[in-house]
Predict the structure.
Amino acid sequence: MRNLRALEGWIYERLVALSGIASVVVMVLIFLFLFRESVPLFRDVSLRHFLFGRDWLPISEPPSFGIVPLVAGTFAVTVSAAVAAVPIGVGAAVYLAEIAPRRLREGLKLAVELLAALPSVVIGFLGIRLLVPWVKAVFGLPTGFTALTGAALLALMALPTIISVAEDALGAVPGTYRQASYALGATRWETITRVVIPAARSGLLAAVLLGFGRVIGETMVVLMVTGNAPIVPRSLFDPARLMTATIAAEMGETVRPSEHYHALFAVGAVLFAVTFLVNLAADRVARGREAR
Amino acid sequence: MADKIRVRGLSVYYGELQALRRVTTSIADRAVTALIGPSGCGKTTFLRSLNRLIDLIPNTRVEGQIFLDDVDVYSPGVDVVDLRRRVGMVFQTPNPFPKSIFDNVAYGPRIHGLSNQRRLEEVVEQSLRRAALWDEVKDKLRHSALDLSGGQQQRLVIARALAVEPDVLLMDEPTSALDPISAGRIEELITELKAEYPIVIVTHNMQQAARIADWTGFFLHGELVEFAETERLFTAPKEPRTEAYLTGRYG
Amino acid sequence: MGRGRRPAGTYWRLDPDLVARRARRLRVERLYSWGLGLLAWSVVGLIAAILGVIVWQGAPAISLEFLTQPPREGMRSGGIYPAIVGTLYLVGFTIAVALPLGVGGAVYLTEYARPGRLTRLIRLAIVNLAGVPSVVYGLFGLGLFVIFLGLGTSILAGSLTLALLILPVVITTAEEAIRAVPRSLREASLALGATRWQTVREVVLPSATPGILTGIILGMARAAGETAPILFTVAAFFLPRLPVSIFDQVMALPYHLFVVSTQIPNMPVELQYGTALVLVGLVTGLNLLAAAVRARYRRARRV
């Protein structure tokens, strides 16, 4: 009886340990598969051409797999989205954490959570129905499917991440700092700008990085509203094609395996590397705060 | 000796809970007043109502009056920010901002509009000297205040409070988080500072009250049971409850 | 008042403008707070407007036929029944995989892992998995499950992909819930002669159940709404009959919304909004459920 119980415990504990390392295994597998499925591309295409080629023409004859327009599109759209979302998100977080009356705070947070929960395909759908015609009409463009449209929607999608991480960071600032500041005769605004925000600096930076990481990996919205022209956009009013959207749009129609198939995996690997670095940086920054 | 602060019938409620019951007393100028009593007796609440820091707690209600130099600090039209500038406060655990030593001390003067760098340097040096910290930190004013020891941090926040040149100093158990040697230095400093300021100190260390205070008040369940010159209170308490506390019958 | 004894001092009184400047500053400050409030509330307003539009425009499409019939006439009429069923299947199988794996991982991290290189590595992996773009999960699922393991485009491949996607959410919330179980409870159990595993099973997990449940529900909501990971692993463009095995393809709500809003010319707008409403209703409902469980659990714990 006793032995049986011990055996059961032993088995379960092994299973638990296995699920513990599952995350690591998955991480390694993702890494491996992206690598394994992209490498064959470079038998025919030079790494140099892939990274610096200015044409993404996967089904032309001969095809060209230059990733520059995709990187440029991704860069233009996501950076614009971040530039728009950071001040709004941090401002809203300051309001939530420092100014909003306690009773309203929970309601505000719930609203932000609901936004975070909205599937991106729904945001993309509303973008097509509402924002795209608006952009076309207001700016007098030939099409409303532009980098700007994508950036605006991505900014919206980055908000929940930025707001909630920034609000956590502000909330983690010890109350004694605020009390000391008030006791010296500082006003609320002085306390916020000179004590609370500087003290939460690294957490706020982490919020921005995580928001950016969220936006860079977003697929459906940009696939649906940016127009997907594989050119380097000259302005935000041009259509753009992003790395994520390229994978989503083209993978369904490739022959497997083929050069095109491997090229899409290579794009995925680049995307993975970028988000990996951004998230790693955010984690470092946030941890730096804990160490203090 | 002149009274700096007069408190008349002060009651404080946190929602339904009454934390102070009609407290009436006076705080003498240029003297140390100690407030003793078991935890939860209302002494910290009393201290925080003097600079209206309890305004920050939601659902708080205050009745009665507190006169600082004959102005009721709870009357409408009182500038809370200016009041807090005039009533400096030191907290239980040292709470320097995560900034440099210089910026900590300069914080108050800066928010009150002093931007001249030379004057700021003067004020910082002066305040650090009065807090008996100057010699230890004068070569590392740009270092983070968080690198100082606990005792140094507590003297730093005293310097920070002095830098806005307050009229009154409040201290909420300023030595309870410190080792005995650091605590001794803070006590010395308090004794020096009382030549210039009225000081109100909350402590649950009766020996400390006996050592440094001129006046002592004993709080119990939100009531100011007895208030007298320290020596009289400790040697000949009039109230049986005070005597019971002093002889160790309440926790 | 004997102020003269203090060295130098009273710098603020030397500045005659100070009173006027203070008043101005306070007015400006009130404006700033007001502005931030406006900002925050316009974000909320936008969210309310988004949900409002979907409900307003989608409600007319909702009918028994819409919810129980397959699409007809090139999807331009009929219902979305197969997509609803497909999404429910996917969510169900996803949770069946992610629940044991996620809770197991959380138990390992809280109860067994010793601080060290392995634990750091696991945490690093979780943080990074949470940030991997969903389309990369899609690629990974295609490479590993569909092709390498030969599962084909199937419910199984799609659910496994989604399970890996929500694993970080499940682990993180479960870990938080397990950590909130007071140590005294564990010690009481161990002191009664229970083994470590018995303590986990009989004491720790039951106390942590509401928190774990919250994480599971959030994971379900996430799995129900994702499109990119199922694009190449399971989702069918048009498949009116229901699946009979886990090796079948299915339609799914998010992919169906993508299809009807971008791939079908002359698609009635009402049906698009109707599809969006069903999807949003499912996802939002799950999130509200999670919020309710969490709120109840918090209240219960405070007593």
User: Anything to note?
Assistant: Residues 1-10 of chain C have pLDDT under 50 and may be disordered. Chain C has two domains: 10-61, 64-302. Chain C touches chain B at residues 2, 5-12, 15, 18, 21-22 (CB under 8 Å).
